[in-house]
Write a structure and sequence with these properties.
This protein has 245 residues and is of the alpha+beta class. The chain folds into two domains: 7-82, Alpha-Beta Plaits (2-Layer Sandwich); 86-238, 3-Layer(aba) Sandwich (Aminopeptidase), CATH 3.40.630. It has helices at 7-21, 58-66, 97-104, 116-124, 138-148, 188-202, 215-219, 227-238; strands at residues 31-32, 49-53, 70-74, 77-80, 85-87, 108-112, 152-159, 162-172, 175-183, 207-211, 223-225. It has a seven-stranded mixed beta sheet with strand order 6-7-8-9-10-5-11, with helices on both faces.
C-alpha cells in the first residue's frame, strides 16, 4: 500500500534531505499556519506551487482567490498560482455551430444554484480518463461554506429530470473562477458553461479564470496570460459592484 502524501511527510522529506545531503531545496515552499498571510504569488515555484498547509476556512479561501491563489489538494492542502495563467475572455468564448443547435433544440433546461452539492459530487466522481480528482475530503465542506456565503455557484444542465452536466466555481465581485465541470450526456457540460458565460457577460463580470489550460478549454477559447497581467485584471474585477445572481 502506498504511503499517504501528507503535510507531515512533505516536511519530513525536505528536513532530512537537508540534514543528510546539506543541499537545500532549490525552491523553498512555505508552510502556512493559522493566521499567517498568503505569500506573494510571485514567489511561487516554476510549477505554480506557492505554499502548503493552513486551512480551508472561508476567510482563507477568500483571501487566496483575491490574491490569485487557489487550493489544489486537501491532504495536504496545497496552494497554487501558476504563471502563465489560463483565462477565457468573456467575449472570446467559442460556441461551435453544432453546440448552438443543441442549445436551441430545447432538449436541455438550465438552472443556477439549484443543486450545488450534486454538481460538486459529480465533478469529483471518477470518469473515463479521470480516475482520480483533487476534489476530496475537506473540499466539499469548504466550497459548501463558500456557496452558502454567496461566493460559490453552480450551473446545472438537465435532460428532463436527469442532471446531465454542470459546472461550479467561485465568484468575488466581477471575477469568476471555474473550478470543475462534468457531463453524463454528451455536450451537457459545454451547454452549462455556455449558460454560465452568458450570465457573466450579462451581469457585467470582467474575468473568467480557468487556472490551467487543457485541450478542451483551449477549443472553447482559453488563452494564457502572464501572471502579472492576470493579477492586474483580478484586482480590477474583484472591486466591481456586480453580483452573480
Amino acid at each position: 500500500m502506498p504511503v499517504p502524501f501528507t503535510l507531515e511527510r512533505v516536511c519530513y522529506f525536505f528536513r532530512w534531505r537537508f540534514i543528510f545531503t546539506g543541499v537545500k531545496p532549490r525552491f523553498f515552499v512555505p508552510v502556512l499556519t493559522p493566521g499567517s498571510p498568503m505569500p506573494d504569488p510571485s514567489t511561487a515555484r516554476p510549477d505554480g506551487l506557492l505554499a502548503i498547509g493552513g486551512d480551508l476556512s472561508l476567510p482563507r479561501l477568500l483571501e487566496a482567490y483575491g490574491k490569485g491563489v487557489f487550493p489544489w489538494s486537501a491532504d495536504p492542502i496545497t496552494w497554487w498560482s501558476p504563471d502563465p495563467r489560463s483565462v477565457i475572455p468573456l467575449e472570446g468564448f467559442h460556441v461551435p455551430q453544432r453546440l448552438r443547435r443543441k442549445i436551441r433544440s430545447g432538449r436541455f433546461t438550465i438552472t443556477f444554484d439549484n443543486a450545488f452539492d450534486r454538481v460538486m459530487q459529480a465533478c469529483a466522481a471518477p470518469a473515463a480518463g479521470r480516475e482520480s480528482t483533487w476534489i476530496e475530503g475537506g473540499m466539499f465542506e469548504a466550497y459548501g461554506r463558500l456557496h452558502r456565503a454567496g461566493h460559490a455557484h453552480s450551473v446545472e444542465c438537465w435532460d428532463g429530470d436527469t442532471l446531465a452536466g454542470g459546472v461550479y466555481g467561485v465568484s468575488i465581485g466581477g471575477f469568476f473562477a471555474g473550478e470543475s465541470m462534468f457531463h453524463h450526456v454528451t455536450d451537457a457540460s459545454k451547454i452549462a458553461l455556455s449558460a454560465l458565460m452568458d450570465r457573466l457577460r450579462h451581469n457585467g463580470f470582467l474575468l473568467f479564470d480557468t487556472q490551467a489550460a487543457t485541450p478542451h478549454t483551449r477549443r472553447l477559447g482559453a488563452i494564457d496570460i502572464p501572471r502579472a497581467d492576470y493579477l492586474k485584471f483580478l484586482q480590477a474585477a474583484i472591486q466591481l459592484p456586480v453580483r452573480f445572481g
